[in-house]
Design a protein that fits this description.
With 58 residues, the chain is an all-alpha fold. It contains 2 helices and no strands. The protein starts with a helix and ends in a 5-residue tail after the last helix.
Length: 58
């Protein structure tokens, strides 16, 4: 019974040792500034639409 349990977890243990090995290690940062720019733009647009809806602006 223990051999069957080991056989089921052996592939998972083998793949766990390889996690992240095939990822490029260039040290580049993800483009969070691009996402942040769009998020701030959409948030500003949301406030503008809310101000129009509540008749704060014409």
């Amino acid at each position: 019974m223990s051999n069957a349990a080991e056989a089921k977890t052996a592939p998972a243990a083998a793949s766990a040792a390889k996690v992240g090995e095939d990822v490029a290690k260039s040290g580049a940062k993800p483009p969070y500034s691009f996402r942040l720019g769009w998020a701030l733009f959409l948030l500003a647009l949301n406030f503008l639409m809310a101000a129009y809806y509540f008749h704060i602006i014409i």
